[in-house]
Amino acid sequence: MKHYKKLLLVFLFTISTHFIFADQLSYITKSQADSAISVLKNQSEVLLWCACCDKDPKLVIKIKDLKLNIVGQNKDYYQIVVVGIDKTGKEMKYDIDLAYTHIFKNGKWYSLGQELGFKCDPCTEPFIFKK
User: Fold this and answer.
1) 38: exposed, middle or buried (C-beta count within 10 Å: 0-12, 13-18, 19+)?
2) 115 vs 57, 62, 102, CA distance in Å?
3) What is the number of structural domains in the chain?
4) Position 106 in a domain
5) Is residue 82 in a domain?
6) Closest C-alpha to 109, from 48, 26, 22
7) What is residue 6's predicted lDDT score, i.e. its pLDDT?
8) How confident is the model at residue 95, as a pLDDT?
9) How far is 26 from 81, CA to CA, in rounded Å?
10) Closest by alpha carbon to 40, among 104, 93, 92?
11) What rounded mean pLDDT belongs to the chain?
12) Residue 83's domain spans which residues?
């Protein structure tokens, strides 16, 4: 019986660590959204990647448009939507999480959430990625 309890505990811990990092800066305040959009307007592309998530591929998107959706029960949160084109030329829409949205500067990709000084853990240091 003790083995089952230990196995269950390990399983629950493993599952919970995945959710701890999920959606850190997906629903944000209006002020945070305005700051992020201000930066994103000066970017030609973004890299979407959750380094905390198993087998999540790095996805570079050429930005065509940015939208702001109101979310939450009291409509007091916002979510940024990037409308862009992927490497195959397909137009896509992505609800982004600023912790896992990376911008390019000085030869490396940086977490937008960290660059804006928001509390988050992108699970990676700035990194080099060649498209």
Assistant:
1) exposed
2) 22, 20, 9
3) 1
4) yes
5) yes
6) 48
7) 46
8) 96
9) 10
10) 104
11) 86
12) 24-115
Start-to-end C-alpha separation, the chain: 51
Q: Which residues pair with 66 in a beta bridge?
A: 82
What is the reported pLDDT for 22? 58
What per-residue confidence (pLDDT) applies to 1?
Answer: 55
Residue by residue, DSSP assigns 63-129 as EEEEEEEEESTTS-EEEEEEEEE-TTS-EEEEE--TTSEEEEETTEEEEHHHHTT-S---SS-SB--
Tokens of 48: 């979407």
Q: Tokens for 101?
A: 């949205």
What kind and span of H or E run contains 47?
Answer: strand 45-48
pLDDT in tens, 28-86: 999 999 999 999 999 999 999 999 998 999 999 999 999 999 997 777 899 999 999 99
Residue 40 and residue 80 in contact, taking contact as beta carbons nearer than 8 Å: yes
Task: Label the pairing between strands 91-95 and 101-105.
Answer: unpaired
Domain-embedded: residue 12: no
Residue 130: band (very low, low, confident or very high) from pLDDT cuts 50, 70, 90: confident
